Give the backbone structure.
Amino acid sequence: MKQSKIAQTGMRRYEQILKRLYIITYASMAIGIIAILIGAYALFAQPHTKVVYVTQNAQNRTIPAYNIKSQLFVPPAALQIDPVITTGGQFGNRLTNINSLLNATELAVINNASNAYFETAGEMLLNRTIVNTVSASPTIVPPFVVNGKPSVIYLGSITCIFCGENRWAMALALSRFGSFSRLYKGYSSFGDGDVPTLYWSPAHYNQSTVDLGSFYNSTYINFIPIEDTDPITGGFALQPMQTMQQEVNSSGNVAYQDAMKFIIEINNFQGTPYTIWGGYNVAGADAVDFGNTPPTNAASLPLANMTHADVLGELSKPSDQFAWTEYAAADLYIAMTCKTLNNTAPICSLPAIKGIESTYGY
Amino acid sequence: MQKRGRVNAAKAIFLRPRFALFALAAGMLYYALFQFVAGIGSHGIFLITLPEYAVAAASAASAVLLTIAVYTTYNAGRQEVKKGAVGGGVVSAVSTFIGGMVAGCGCSAPLLGTLLYAVGVNVLGVSSAISYIGKYQMPIIGIVILIDVLLSYYYLGVSAVRCRVNRSRAKKRG
């Protein structure tokens, strides 16, 4: 009798659960199928980062062309609230020499790099002897013209590891069209590799704000860097674009305000670094260069165990895959800029740059 | 009573070598899936700021849910139960996918960005999503784990009730 009662109670509960199971089953399956379909779409729709040959994206939306006149923002040469830190630290949580200027010798490694290095790296890229990933799937955009020159626009974050790695290639590329009178030593955040990098201007490494401007001069192009900052001792962080836009607008600089508007109008931002090289918009870094072989996880990043002197030393006399990859990554940016400039800059006459332009379809 | 039933059901599942092995294999598979999805945003490199234990916990929770769901399907006599258990399996995979996507939301988030643009979100929305997901990665992963745990608890309840009913019927027949 008692067993029968237990069985009846159990059966009732069992039936109740079954009713609920119907709802859970179909809801779960519907969510699952939708998620898998969207996931599959996203996987196939996103740029193929490993593919070397580039397909230019068709532009179906209207992006307004800018042709403005404006002084470029001049950043402060030093920040009292975020001073140079000279004390040492362990790899992974060091801020040694953050915000300190590159000395003349160090600056010359960037400004006076031999064109032969760019040529060799470009040839290696074309004959596929670069082992690290170097690729970009640029979107065609109208050049952002300021004072009659097309611009290189950069939106990045000091906390981001890929921005940190990418700035080396960017600096090399930019040095072919002009020169830096100042560059600063920096790092990505502790939580995102703590890799040594260059800052375009002294960074607000303790605060959430936006750093604008650089000490770059060129007769061919403008360089408009917008750098999101957050505490460097944390992990990767990025302020929402509305916040960044408000901060850029508060600078009162028309070129930077319009550059921010331009990025929003392009409407394809998916993270940092985000760059525009004349008529080419590149989402993300154009290389994965953390050492002499492609990394597999965060623990295998030789760059995280290098100092600024190590990196500059390698770039001054490139002899390994790390250094050649940086030059090859710079070559892609150079080719995009050359195409925008109708190959009028001297660097554009390098055979490797011409080869990249034709092979990659720029 | 019900609690003890769930514990017994859990023992019945995970003390069987084949289901224990299945759980282990599922955990490894989900860990790999988590890494793959997280790596899409960082050029295939598993570069995340989450602690390793969070990734392991998320993979383990999904694997446990999948194992319980498979056990329920395996043992269920009625079609409704089988279907319900399949739903659990789907949720376990989806939760790993979402966990990986959230964990991979670092410097860039092409997967999340493509998804959001595809459903009509604009650049301001996408940048906010990257910003907030980057900021609240750990709590979001915690919620994903919690969903897995709650569903596992629920399915264990189904198995427990079924076990009791079967035992009662067996005794009655005996």
